Amino acid sequence: MRRPAFLMIALLPVALLAACAEMRQPPEFARIPPGLGVASADPVPAMIAEAAAAFSDGGASLNGRPAEAARAIGQMELVAEAFRRNPRWAPVSAATVTELRTARTEWRQAIGIPETAAPETVAVALGQASLALRENDTQRAAAALAPAAFMPGGAPAIARLAAPGPLPQARIASALARDEVARMARMQLGGVTGALDPDAPFLNSLTGAQIPGTMR
Q: How far does the signal peptide extend, from start to end residue (predicted)?
């Protein structure tokens, strides 16, 4: 049975409002987990730059700094997933995506994250652990690094973050990702210059919370 024309007309504004609401949603990875945020309305490029700096010596400077290691690895977990899933980053080269996949295997093996662990789950846990470790709260950090995503989890996971060992692939992949974002900006490709969300808030560089006074 066909719907009356007046009913279809009545439903049209509802559909348009729903479409507009969906278009105005902030980018998927603009909602950065606490502990991984960067003070930027467009956090993914900023996270890439910060993580590339952290890995610039192949992870050597992260030894003895588990909070910083958790933050850098958590950021790159999000970046790797953003490049894989978000259409905004479709112009990123296949070589960069491949290097990130290899690097993820490297850092996951270094700190005991199963390959099957969901990136979002890993990133949230690492962000929480980073915040706790900055406050010298090892008990809370150990609780964040639960065995569900870290093997064996807890205190041993903190010890691995404190001594992640050489991470040469993380250095290569994060530098490639940084350079790829810069290339996209120069060439005005895709999301970097043309897809900034005008309503996204600026984020606190540590907690990921919206900075007071900024507007959505």
A: 1-18
Asked whether the bond before 152 is cis by omega within 30 degrees of 0, the reply is yes
Report the number of distinct structural domains present in the chain: 1
Which of 63, 103, 59, 60 is CA-nearest to residue 79? 103
* pLDDT (tens digit per residue) in 70-82: 999 999 999 999 9
Ordered DSSP codes for 94-134? HHHHHHHHHHHHHHHHHHT--TTS-HHHHHHHHHHHHHHHH
CA distance to 92, 130, 209, per residue, from 34 (Å): 26, 9, 7
Residue 142 lies in a domain: yes
**208 dihedral zone (left: phi>0; alpha: psi -120 to 50; beta):** left
Confirm whether 13 is domain-assigned: no
Could you give the 3-state DSSP secondary structure of residue 210? strand
| Range of the structural domain that residue 137 is part of | 42-194
Instruction: Give CA–CA dist 71/131, Å, rounded.
Output: 9
Q: Note whether residue 3 is domain-resident.
A: no
> What is each CA distance from 54 to 75, 76, 84, 130, 131, in whole angstroms?
11, 11, 22, 14, 17
The CA-CA-CA angle for residues 182, 86, 48, to 5°, reads: 35
Each residue's pLDDT tens digit, 153-165: 999 999 999 999 9
